[in-house]
Amino acid sequence: MKKRIKRDKEIKISLTQEEMERIEKIAQKIGITKSRLARNLVLAGLEDAELLNKLGLFDAVKMIEKIREKALGTKDLKLAD
């Protein structure tokens, strides 16, 4: 029998209406809840971030983000200094 993992920690995020609609559309299409989709997306992003860190590429990502911010005036991705 598969052991059930206790998931009792929460994180609050705020989304735009458009972002929520995108999540709803994908969750509905693949037949999972919005919460499960969001959790899967966070875990996938976390794995990517851990790999970048392991490879020593965080500094490169931060530099690219700073260049993007200056060029496009956006602040979508913020990595801790």
Record keyword descriptors for this entry.
81 residues; extended
Folded structure, characterized:
It is a single chain. The relative contact order is 0.07. 62% of the residues lie in helices and 0% in strands. With 81 residues, it is an all-alpha fold. It has 3 helices and no strands. The chain is extended and about 45 Å long. It has a domain at 17-72.
- Percentage of helical residues? 55-70%
How many angstroms does the end-to-end distance come to?
43 Å
Poorly predicted runs of 5 or more residues: none
**How many extended strands?**
0
Return the string of H and E elements.
Answer: HHH
The best one-word shape is extended
Structural classification = mainly alpha
- Strand % is under 5%
The radius of gyration over CA amounts to 16 Å
Largest beta-sheet details: none
Mean pLDDT comes to: 87
The number of helices is: 3
Tell me briefly what this model is.
This protein has three helices and no strands.
Chain-wise SSE layout:
Layout: H1 17-30, H2 34-54, H3 58-72
Helix pairs in contact: 1-2
